[in-house]
Design the sequence.
């Protein structure tokens, strides 16, 4: 659920902001899973942004926008490299590995 | 995404949203939300019990509805949030403001899905 939410926000962010006004554009999406880690890379050739300059939402004002980046960063580890292409990476440890680790620890005792 | 808006009866209008409310589907909803707000209902009941997913754009539309109805002196009661939409509301701290105390606990799913007319 958190991965789907974060990736959806990342994708929409590129479409709505990076490629604003463009009728056709491309996004390269790669998903890697390895040892309980899911890593998703989105590459785009649109306008870049600097996530460090985006302030967190002012929750007390009930903001109607500017929430996508916060959702991404809350649900997954996010890195961003501006360039051609821009590269946004989202990663997260999967629950399956945690559950497996618990089972392993339990069977060892 | 499917939605249904029932005009105010005895001061209470009703909005039901089902499926996925995201950056694409929210566009289908906006003009009807605009009409709903302009009708100045004293109360808007928002049933989100069949909403499976919401993204920041969908949340933005719901927050906008809430703020505009409240600014007109009305009230918005959001009920039925669960799973991913509830997690998003909690993450964005909207549950504290937009959900009444009795709607923060998701209800049990209905035994039978009712058929409804839809847009």
Sequence:
């Amino acid at each position: 659920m958190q991965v789907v939410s974060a990736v959806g926000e990342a994708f929409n962010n590129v479409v709505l902001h990076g490629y604003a006004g463009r009728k056709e554009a491309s996004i390269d999406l790669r998903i890697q899973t390895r040892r309980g880690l899911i890593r998703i890379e989105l590459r785009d050739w649109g306008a870049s942004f600097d996530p460090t300059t985006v302030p967190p939402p002012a929750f007390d004002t009930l903001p109607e926008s500017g929430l996508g980046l916060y959702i991404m960063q809350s649900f997954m580890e996010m890195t961003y490299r501006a360039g051609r292409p821009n590269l946004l990476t989202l990663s997260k440890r999967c629950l399956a590995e945690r559950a497996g680790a618990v089972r392993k620890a339990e069977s060892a005792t | 995404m499917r939605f249904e808006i029932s005009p105010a009866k005895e001061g209470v209008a009703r909005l039901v949203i089902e499926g996925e409310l995201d950056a694409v589907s929210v566009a289908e909803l906006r003009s009807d939300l605009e009409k709903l707000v302009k009708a100045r209902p004293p109360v808007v009941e928002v049933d989100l019990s069949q909403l499976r997913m919401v993204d920041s754009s969908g949340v933005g539309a719901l927050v906008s509805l809430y703020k505009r109805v409240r600014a007109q002196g009305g009230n918005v009661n959001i009920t039925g949030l669960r799973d991913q939409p509830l997690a998003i509301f909690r993450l964005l701290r909207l549950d504290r403001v937009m959900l009444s105390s009795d709607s923060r606990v998701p209800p049990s799913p209905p035994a039978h899905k009712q058929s409804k007319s839809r847009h």
Observations:
- The longest strand of chain B covers residues 12-21.
